[in-house]
Design a protein that fits this description.
The chain is 41% helix and 21% strand. The protein is built from eleven helices and ten strands.
Length: 336
């Protein structure tokens, strides 16, 4: 019987035998019988060298092709046997493996806490676009044309008179244009400024903005709302201080500070020895702003305030570097 006929019969026999194998041991026996050092196919391959050149090429190609097919078939059968063994070893009565769940980012957590506190006071949550016009970001808020905040070195301009908002105050203008007093709203969102990145500055940050407009709204209402909020967020024991300041869209304006949460007001490196930490800016809405949205400043008054979410989170959780919020380091995030 010539080698060509032997290869044909061997192929039929080997594939039938491979199909009938069931366990790992049977597959190993198959490998030894056909592909081992003394296997049937190996013996045929050794005889090819004695054939004439032309016949050697044809028989050699067929023999090597058969060897490759058997090796691939054996590998496939082994993988199926291994998969079946894994399934058989699995006890379906065992309790399931609890998946590892993520949790909210610290900025999201503090934002939710802030929102909940103001909702207790009757404030409504609103939102606005992050891409703004110069009118809403500056002009309607009484920023003069020469104000440094309007310079391209401080703000991210996308096109002439179009920029990424540098604060959340434009939302106030948009809401007041569409609605009439009384208003009591807050907005929380991302803002953008050309700040050099360091431990306390980042070009992208989150801000909360609050607004209250109505008849006979006074500075006392502003002090009451902010004092309640700050003592709720930090501690009922903290003191709140209001000092005169300046903002284009409020008059009078105030810089609001809290007694140092680290030294209880005694004076330390965190508060510069003063016992106070500046936390936000606020004030009564400038009559010029009210006129821009067609509110009568003789009839309506109101207050506004704004603060950085990251700053509150850093103070509340004793975080020393704002960059940690953006690095996505699980060692940091898993602490919250």
């Amino acid at each position: 019987m010539n080698l060509k006929t032997q290869l044909k019969r061997l192929a039929e026999e080997a594939f039938l035998s491979l199909k009938r194998t069931k366990g790992k041991e049977e597959l190993e026996n198959f490998r030894i019988a056909y592909l081992g050092r003394k296997g049937t196919l190996t013996r045929i391959l050794r005889r090819i060298k004695d054939l004439p050149l032309e016949e050697r090429k044809v028989i050699g190609k067929r023999a090597n092709g058969l060897k490759q097919q058997l090796e691939e078939g054996l590998k496939l059968r082994l993988s199926r046997v291994e998969e079946r063994r894994k399934v058989e070893r699995f006890d379906i009565t065992l309790p399931g493996i609890k998946p590892r769940l993520g949790h909210l980012h610290p900025i999201t957590l503090i934002s939710e806490e802030i929102r909940g506190t103001f909702q207790e006071l009757g404030f409504e949550m609103v939102a606005g676009p992050e891409i703004e016009t110069e009118y809403y970001n500056f002009e309607a808020l009484n920023f003069p044309p020469e104000h440094p905040a309007r310079d391209s070195f401080d703000s991210f301009y996308l096109a002439p008179e179009i920029l990424l908002r540098s604060h959340t105050s434009p939302v106030q203008i948009r809401v007041m244009e569409k609605r009439k007093p009384p208003l009591r709203i807050i907005t929380i969102g991302r803002c953008y400024r050309r700040d050099a990145i360091d431990a306390s500055h980042f070009p992208v940050f989150h801000q909360i903005e609050g607004l209250m407009v109505g008849e006979k709204i006074s500075f006392s209402h502003l002090k009451g709302v902010l004092t309640y909020f700050l003592q709720k967020i930090f501690s009922p024991d903290i003191r709140v201080r209001f000092l005169p300041s300046y903002f284009p869209f409020t008059e009078p304006s105030a810089e609001v500070s809290i007694s140092c949460i680290f030294c209880k007001g005694a004076g330390c490196s965190s508060c510069g020895g003063s016992g106070w930490i500046e936390i936000l800016g606020a004030g009564m809405i400038n009559p010029m702003v009210l006129r821009k949205v067609k509110y009568d400043p003789e009839k309506f008054t109101g207050f506004a305030f704004g603060m950085g979410i990251e700053r509150i989170a850093m103070l509340k959780h004793r975080i020393s570097d704002i960059r940690l919020f953006w690095e996505n380091d699980l060692r940091f995030l898993e602490q919250f």
